[in-house]
Amino acid sequence: MIIPAILEKDLKNIINKVDLVKDVAKTIQIDVLDNTLIKEKTFTDLNKLKNIKTDIEIIIHLMVDDPKKYIKKLNGSFIFSKGKISNVSTFITQLTEDKNKIMEFIKLAKNSGYKTGISINTDQDTSLLIPFLDKTDVIQFMGVNPGKQGNEFLPEVMDKIIDFKNKFPGVETLLDGGVCRDNFISVVKTGVDKVVIGSSIFNTENPKQKFIEFSNLFEEERKTAHGE
Prior knowledge:
Shape: globular
Mean pLDDT: 91
CATH class: Alpha Beta
Number of strands: 10
Order of helices and strands: EHEEHEEEHEEHEHEHH
Largest sheet: 8 strands, parallel, barrel
CATH topology: TIM Barrel
Low-confidence stretches: 77-82
Distance between the termini: 18 Å
């Protein structure tokens, strides 16, 4: 599956990008940075996600120092329905040295009705994920140094994914960042389950068509890998 990634400072721009792919994408990912873990800031007022009129599943990638505070801010909000935000399925947080903070985030998000994920940078060892594997739903591998879209792809992430998939074949995996037409087939051959793509979709003349092209290539490569 291909997941369009949106990294914007303004909700209006987020809505505009959702509209560009809403007829073809089943899932989108919205990146949230608050100038703490990474020195960049994007849209952070998650209460306003109610203004996104779409049936598309939404993943929130929290690249922040304290992810649980974003879940806490939403508790009691009028946009909650049966304990969770409409359309948002999953919250992903970055892997940090503070294990307790991550555990608190996972517990709070799960209790609020969300799936959870951990995102790991290329320079972090996958063994650091082991304490969380039976408590979270997805592992996301960063293919770039996070902070902004368009950063250079780090090809070493592909070996990390292959190694991880061999050790933990039942864990759902995502690759986020730096994917383009030139490296796409190599990325899919790692066996990663979903590919998150930002600038290579949205920085084109026709994002909808580009999404379809990536999706078709993904399916074709998967069929080839399974001998179909």
